[in-house]
Design goal:
Helix content is 41%, strand content 22%. The chain is of the alpha+beta class. It has a domain of 55 residues. A hairpin with a 2-residue loop joins strand 2 and strand 3. The chain is elongated, with a radius of gyration of 24 Å.
Length: 237
């Protein structure tokens, strides 16, 4: 096993430097040896210079999004459609930041060093290694890593697959929280319609890799409601 000047194997050295650099950026100071401090200073200065250079390197773009109508208390407005109460939606124009290529590259370079995880509950994680996390915690960790880049749009593939009931509830609440508090648009790929109905506002149905239908939650609810179909052969009274 090859050792470097900090007397650590390369993988341990990288993990140590990432931890120290993250602590320095977040807290403004660290306590360590002079040799380690020189290494960390070099990393931190590079990240700061990159961040300053790319800070304003983005453009504002407008997108159309369907969002639920809310009242003054923040509650979803309901409307009656064919005798049933459904959530009312409206199409709004949102302005979002779109990173230019060099800013996106800089963000990815930073994430190789700085990966703060804020959505995994510390009281449950404790000192566990990731390999010992439950499936639900691994799902939350994956989402947290995706959030490290502060995205406006997040893609999740079967986020509740294999989870127990409690894990499903936690992921559902996390998805709703991200949309409600951080205004993140989330695209979920899943075949579990019952669970999707609790969070989705718009559905896209794909067949053989092609989008064959796009439908709002209210329209899908109307299409799937229970009914009785009656045919008669004689319409004379």
């Amino acid at each position: 096993m090859a050792y470097n000047r900090l007397n650590r194997p390369s993988d341990q050295r990288k993990a140590m430097l990432r931890s120290l650099a993250t602590a320095l950026i977040n807290n403004g100071k660290i306590v360590t040896t002079e040799a380690k401090a020189k290494e960390v200073k070099k990393i931190a200065e590079g990240l700061i210079a990159m961040a300053v250079k790319e800070k304003d390197n983005f453009e504002m773009v407008k997108v159309q999004a369907k969002v639920p109508v809310k009242d003054k208390d923040g509650k979803r407005v309901k409307e009656v459609v064919d005798g049933k109460k459904v959530t009312k939606f409206e199409t709004v124009e949102k302005e979002i930041k779109k990173d230019m290529p060099s800013r996106l590259h800089a963000r990815r370079q930073m994430l190789k060093v700085l990966c703060p995880v804020t959505e995994v509950p510390a009281e449950n994680a404790g000192k566990k290694k990731v390999k010992n996390f439950s499936l639900g915690m691994k799902q939350r960790l994956g989402i947290a890593i995706a959030l490290a880049g502060d995205p406006d749009f997040l893609v999740l593939d079967e986020p509740i697959n294999g989870l127990d009931p409690q894990g499903i509830v936690e992921i559902r609440e996390l998805i709703l929280k991200l949309n409600r508090e951080k205004q993140i648009t989330i695209l979920i790929s899943s075949h579990i319609l019952d669970e999707l109905s609790r969070v989705a506002t718009c559905y896209g149905i794909i067949d053989n890799g092609r989008m064959v239908k796009e439908i709002s939650a209210a329209e899908l609810e109307m299409a799937c409601r229970k009914c009785v179909h009656i045919e008669v052969t004689d319409t004379k009274i």
